[in-house]
Amino acid sequence: MRDCLSQNSFFLSLVHSETEHELQSNKEISEKQLWLKIFSPHVLNITMVNLPDITKVPVGDQPMDIEAPVRTMILSYIKHKT
To answer: Which of 10, 14, 25, 77 has the fewest CB within 10 Å, making it most exposed?
Structure first.
């Protein structure tokens, strides 16, 4: 279990680092996808999507209508295509 937690922390720090590198601003959001390739005989081939939390109160450089663009972004990933 401890090994799993350390791997989870590693992936979270990697995503955070890449997000900071790409955005270089204060709490900005972006629709740009980050692609991380992980190679290991112990990891399944999966696609992970890290989406922002739905928020109603802007912080940092976020626009006053932060809820609308975040909701649109999230729905574009989870909406069933008909």
So the answer is: 77
